[in-house]
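User: Structure please.
Assistant: Input sequence and predicted structure:
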Amino acid sequence: MESEYKLLSGAMVTLALATATLVVLPHMQLSDVPPSEGLKPYTEQQLRGRQVYIEMGCVYCHSQQPRSQSQAPDFQRGWGRAPVAGDYYYDTPHLLGTMRTGPDLFNIGARQPSVDWNLGHLYNPRAYVPGSNMPSFPFMFKLKDKAEPGDKVVNLPPSFAPVGKVVVATPEALDLVEYLIGLDHTYPVKPGVLLPELPQQADAEGAKQ
């Protein structure tokens, strides 16, 4: 019985130390961090797009945390500087990601600010990035014989456009693209608390997608 008490006590102490190290101390360190200068709050449309991003599982293939130049060639890939804690001030939940089946999206709005490009890329990634392994999302679009007033027509490359039809973006696709082009953290930041690197991050398929 005494050994069982010792085992239980040891487990409780280990759990308490782990909680203090991984939860309490980081919260104390980052709870008062202000937003980075130049960081803007999300608009209502961007928040809706962010929810679509979560529901579509984009975080499983894309990270939003470029690593520092001393740790990885992310800056040379065009993904931007390493983030600081204040860059994520408005992010709840955080969408840091741990996998890079596709490129990091921390600054996709700076690399690809075109609404038309992002919509077409969602409809068929291989129309813009040959060999891309990103899935297509045609269900986020409608095929129509003729565009109606207020429709956002997707201008696809001719060889990928459906014959005799127009591709129209749904509100969900427009919200998602608005969120993506809003991911622009190219503003300068003062030296501060850098985001800790997560282990086992996979290399990306390319600097742009």
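The CA atoms of residues 1 and 7 lie 10 Å apart.
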